[in-house]
Amino acid sequence: MQKQQLLYKGKAKSVYETDDNDFLILHFRDDTSAFNGERVEQLARKGQVNNRFNAFIMQKLSEAGIETHFEKQLSDNEVLVKRLEMIPVECVVRNFAAGSLVRRLGLEEGQALTPPTFELFFKDDALGDPMVNESLSITLGWATAEQLEEMKRLTYQVNEVLKAMFEVGDLMLVDFKLEFGVYHGRIVLGDEFSPDGCRIWDKTTKKKLDKDRFRQSLGDVIEAYEEVAQRIGVPLD
Ligand code: TMP
Predict the structure, then answer these.
(1) pLDDT of residue 237
(2) In angstroms, rounded to a whole number, what is the distance separating the alpha carbons of residues 111 and 25?
(3) Angle, vertex CA 122, rays to CA 187 and CA 60, nearest 5
(4) Could you say which residues of the chain have pLDDT below 50?
(5) CB under 8 Å to 60, separation ≥6 — which residues?
(6) DSSP string computed for 55-87
(7) Which of 33, 57, 92 best tests ligand 1's pocket when mutated (most atoms within 8 Å of CB)?
(8) Angstrom distance (rounded) from CA 86 to CA 68
(9) Which pLDDT does position 1 carry in this prediction?
(10) Global pTM?
């Protein structure tokens, strides 16, 4: 598979076309951004750690019967994926209150959410990824009711698989964000799963081991990602 021109440069990944229209190459960069791109820094090893982390998780999800765009890790920073027609709606599941939910509803950080909640956000940088709902998503043509139903079902299924995986490493999966797309008519998991797009805490100390370390300037960001990787068995070298 030949890497061709740059299709799109996101905040942390660059997307390249290949000589096969059904596949793309994602390049994980070291760029780390927060507050909708207001703060951007280079964190050494991040691209490589997230690429390996994502490959491991995508393979576990695939083994659990969840179809993903992941095909094959190509290099330290690159992965070959199926080319999806992305749905511009992000799916968020929360097992414990944190982040925007705490700010919005005044909940206590760490409050257990039973059953876990499911939220939708419109993927739009200029608008700051506002929270939306199913009705808006259908009316505005972002997805059909059937697609949204499938995305919700799959997101909850991912939650069950990953909660159990993190539990083994004495870690709490607090919340996470997924993005889906359409591939030959099927809803398929796209984008990435890494500590950039989820919250993971140590079960005992509640130490934050995800991108909140960057957002809140807590330090040792990549060291925390590596600790999570090591605890759940992601091969890092
Ligand atoms: P939030 O608390 O900021 O709404 O985020 C919930 C989870 O989803 C958190 O793990 C971060 C992740 N997320 C992203 O990675 N990107 C996004 O654009 C959004 C809305 C959430």
Answers:
(1) 82
(2) 39
(3) 40
(4) none
(5) 161, 162, 165
(6) HHHHHHHHHTT--BSEEEE-SSSEEEEE--EEE
(7) 92
(8) 13
(9) 84
(10) 0.98
